[in-house]
């Protein structure tokens, strides 16, 4: 590891790689977004552009799926979501390389987290903030990215919290294209799995229990080659938790062991009111190796390795053993790798 100097004049709140890992975007309390590109020869990050994006601290960013172009969403304490698109013909470091597509201003309080849905769901994003409401937006026409519509508004918290930091709210989408649309929303010490019913409305399908502090980060693993889902959380209580999520459907392991008639019966074991499969949640791992607050968790592209970062200033890499137990396989610090 080595220092990465962003040039921001205030606290950096978020840093996000694009799909290919060749560009990275940062945001800060200095109200600026910066985009850097990787120089393949020197392996250094070079500034591509920097611009004033909001009128208050910018706390969360995300890149859209590359099939929709080079688009960034940002949220701020100024209560707005802004969409930005790259103009590849504009000069680098000119402040004009990224142009604003639109501003979404339905929130009644500071916004803390924004995430695009996986590409197979279309150009869609979710955001949550201090008012405790999850809002989901869709691009009306993928060929005209300046027009977006609010398609879902879900009250995650019964009453808005009096005062909390942006790190107390986060969300992540289920990346699987073979599963009904789902996402996890974390607000304070709650982690709720929302799923769409047959009417297209989000409802609480499951809860990730066991947290005894504020949840700082959540990450949903890509489910390549797995019939179940994995979700990781990082918590103020100092623990990295990994949850197993299974759908009570035809591909459930219990269902596969019964005869064809029973298989057909079990495939109908979905919530008759929602028309969606029931979800079963188990906790696979609960680790406190960081011996302090956990600030970030993230899966790799194949969902086989989890990285976590905590107050100990180290990044820990977790991998499942043959018995499906997650063990710390590596510890990375600024000084050495062990």
TrEMBL record:
<keyword id="KW-0539">Nucleus</keyword>
<dbReference type="GO" id="GO:1904263">
    <property type="term" value="P:positive regulation of TORC1 signaling"/>
</dbReference>
<dbReference type="InterPro" id="IPR037363">
    <property type="entry name" value="Sec13/Seh1_fam"/>
</dbReference>
<keyword id="KW-0906">Nuclear pore complex</keyword>
<keyword id="KW-0653">Protein transport</keyword>
<keyword id="KW-0853">WD repeat</keyword>
<dbReference type="GO" id="GO:0005198">
    <property type="term" value="F:structural molecule activity"/>
</dbReference>
<dbReference type="GO" id="GO:0031080">
    <property type="term" value="C:nuclear pore outer ring"/>
</dbReference>
<comment type="similarity">
    <text>Belongs to the WD repeat SEC13 family.</text>
</comment>
<keyword id="KW-0509">mRNA transport</keyword>
<feature type="repeat" description="WD">
    <location>
        <begin position="51"/>
        <end position="85"/>
    </location>
</feature>
<feature type="repeat" description="WD">
    <location>
        <begin position="287"/>
        <end position="319"/>
    </location>
</feature>
<protein>
    <submittedName>
        <fullName>LAFE_0C06040g1_1</fullName>
    </submittedName>
</protein>
<keyword id="KW-0813">Transport</keyword>
<dbReference type="GO" id="GO:0015031">
    <property type="term" value="P:protein transport"/>
</dbReference>
<dbReference type="InterPro" id="IPR015943">
    <property type="entry name" value="WD40/YVTN_repeat-like_dom_sf"/>
</dbReference>
<dbReference type="GO" id="GO:0035859">
    <property type="term" value="C:Seh1-associated complex"/>
</dbReference>
<dbReference type="InterPro" id="IPR001680">
    <property type="entry name" value="WD40_rpt"/>
</dbReference>
<dbReference type="GO" id="GO:0051028">
    <property type="term" value="P:mRNA transport"/>
</dbReference>
<dbReference type="GO" id="GO:0034198">
    <property type="term" value="P:cellular response to amino acid starvation"/>
</dbReference>
<dbReference type="InterPro" id="IPR036322">
    <property type="entry name" value="WD40_repeat_dom_sf"/>
</dbReference>
<keyword id="KW-0677">Repeat</keyword>
<dbReference type="Pfam" id="PF00400">
    <property type="entry name" value="WD40"/>
</dbReference>
<feature type="repeat" description="WD">
    <location>
        <begin position="208"/>
        <end position="253"/>
    </location>
</feature>
<feature type="region of interest" description="Disordered">
    <location>
        <begin position="252"/>
        <end position="276"/>
    </location>
</feature>
<keyword id="KW-0811">Translocation</keyword>
